[in-house]
Amino acid sequence: MTGSPTSARRRRRRPRLGPALRRAWPLTPRGVGALLTGVAAIVCAHAFGVVELVYIGVLLIASVAFGWVSLWFVHRYGDVSRSFSPDVTAVGSESIVTVHATARGGLSGAVARWTDALPDGIEGDASGILTGAAALDRLRLTYRIRGTRRGIREVGPFSIVVTDPFGFTRRSVRAGAAEPITVAPATVMLPPLTEYPGEAGGSLHTATHQLGEGADNLIPRAYAPGDSMRRINWRASAHHDELMVRQEEQESTPEATVVLDRAASRWAQSASRPGEDAAFDAAVTAAVSAVARLAREGYDVAVIDTEGHPIGAPVPAGDTVAVEQLALELATVVTGSDDRLSGLARLFAGTVAGPVVLITARVTAADADALAPLVAHSALPVLLAAESSEEALTRASAAGWRAAVLTPDGDLTDSWRAATERGTTRAAL
Question: Which of 102, 154, 373, 378 is a Cys-bridge partner for 356, taking CB atoms 3.0 to 4.6 Å apart?
Answer without folding.
Answer: 378
